[in-house]
């Protein structure tokens, strides 16, 4: 008997939301698993519109009346993701992990919920990921690394082995962090930066080697 698809709503109707729809389509090409219902977005100008032929269903409150719908946060800002998860906590939603079929996943991965792992990502071995992470195209995470909740890792990031990114770290495109470093919660690592020492307090770092600017 043919298995029915699971309904899923995309929280965030921006560019990343459209990318997540494509990711789901790619997953469905391999295993017919998901039915995308549409987008959830609190922007009142989007209410009742359609984006790439999918409706904007409403704001976050729409999910309160549809508890059977699974949801995924297609949102870049770690702070925004955390705030939304806290706002939605009373609804007891289910957040699946979406892993692109062209991602490379090594052994002994520990995974939370609501993670988005896109095409070309490489996760080597003995990696621990939290929840509500966005790991974008061609990013690499090395052995024994830990990435805590709400982080965003943009395209072509390279994270070496034994690195810990604490909660809500954002790594810009093409940034690199060498092995055995620890990055404080809430840190922003600028695009193209090379991190060569641990970052003990939340700040924004840029350049090669990366230096704090605030």
N- to C-terminal distance: 58 Å
* Helix percent band: 10-25%
Q: What can be said about the biggest beta sheet?
A: 8 strands, mixed
Order of helices and strands: EHEEEEHEEEEEEEEEEEEEEEEEEE
Integer average pLDDT: 96
Poorly predicted regions are: none
Number of strands: 24
Please state the CA-atom Rg, rounded to the nearest Å. 17 Å
Number of helices: 2
Strand order of the largest sheet: 6-9-12-15-18-21-23-24
Shape category: globular
SS-based class = alpha/beta
Strand content: 25-35%
Describe this structure in words.
The protein contains two helices and 24 strands. With 214 residues, it is of the alpha/beta class. It has an eight-stranded mixed sheet, with helices on one face. Strands 7-10-13-16-19-22 form a six-stranded parallel sheet, with no helix packed on it.
Element layout with pairings:
Elements: E1 6-11, H1 15-30, E2 34-40, E3 50-51, E4 54-58, E5 70-73, H2 78-88, E6 98-99, E7 104-105, E8 110-111, E9 116-117, E10 122-123, E11 128-129, E12 134-135, E13 140-141, E14 146-147, E15 152-153, E16 158-159, E17 164-165, E18 170-171, E19 176-177, E20 182-183, E21 188-189, E22 194-195, E23 204-206, E24 211-212
Parallel strand pairs: 1-2, 1-5, 2-4, 6-9, 7-10, 8-11, 9-12, 10-13, 11-14, 12-15, 13-16, 14-17, 15-18, 16-19, 17-20, 18-21, 19-22, 21-23
Antiparallel strand pairs: 3-4, 23-24
